[in-house]
Design a protein that fits this description.
The complex is a heterodimer. Chain A is mainly beta. Chain A contains no helices and eleven strands. The mean pLDDT of chain B is 94. Classes of the chains: A mainly beta, B mainly beta. Chains A and B meet through strand 4, strand 5, strand 9 and strand 10 of A and strand 5, strand 6, strand 9 and strand 10 of B.
């Protein structure tokens, strides 16, 4: 069964803290996406990964293909980082669809 | 470049009615995907259109359908609405197909309420 699991479901941090959000998937994938959703619904694509590591500003995303695991890190967190972070994996082949994790609700307090 | 636009932004319908939602992708993007988001189920994939053809479909009943026009604009239709269809419907566009791992650009969504 193609599943995506995220942890933690909820996370509260103090401004400046280093944050890690984890995503695990069940079988081989073609690509993994990290998305950010602010209150009100708007979704922004942060990263697309098929291997290795990507960095954009204070955000870093890594993927370990052998362990079927990805992490999203936020360095020097800020209250504006408060949002829901969603992992999504694209299963190719017969499945051929994008499957989403349940999301991690992050609140960064000043 | 203008972003992905969706119309209408809000919609109220009653059970049994049908609804059509519209999505205009970013200029030059050929793939449009549709998603449903509910508090209980989270985000779920509905279908992807590329070059006017449905390329893949999620686990939704046949009441959910769509199409894509030659200018890449897409519409999604839900017939015989049920209360459980109340959700935020999002579309996203990308240059190439989902299978290619393309970055998705999401629209603001259409919030549908079925009474």
């Amino acid at each position: 069964k193609n599943e995506v699991e995220q942890s933690p479901q909820n996370l509260t941090a103090q401004e400046g803290e280093f944050i890690t959000i984890n995503c695990s998937y069940s079988v081989g994938i073609s690509a993994l996406h990290w998305l950010q959703q602010h209150p009100g619904g708007g979704i922004v694509s942060l990263f697309m990964l098929s291997s290795g590591k990507k960095k954009h500003g204070r955000l870093i995303a890594t993927i370990n293909i052998q362990e079927k695991h990805s992490s999203l890190h936020i360095t020097a967190s800020h209250p504006r980082d408060s949002a829901v972070y969603i992992c999504a994996v694209y299963y190719g082949g017969a499945t051929n669809k994008l499957i989403f994790g349940t999301g991690t609700l992050l609140a960064v307090q000043p | 470049k203008a972003g992905v636009t969706q119309t209408p932004r809000y919609l109220i319908k009653t059970r049994g009615q049908q609804v059509t939602l519209s999505c205009s992708p970013i200029s030059g993007h050929r793939s449009v995907s549709w998603y449903q988001q509910t508090p209980g189920q989270g985000l779920q994939f509905l279908f992807e259109y590329f070059s006017e053809t449905q390329r893949n479909k999620g686990n939704f009943p046949g009441r959910f359908s769509g199409r894509q026009f030659s200018n890449s604009r897409s519409e999604m239709n839900v017939s015989t609405l049920e209360l459980g269809d109340s959700a935020l419907y999002l579309c996203a566009s990308s240059l190439g197909r989902l299978a290619g791992g393309e970055t998705q650009y999401f629209g603001p969504g259409t919030r549908l309420l079925v009474l």
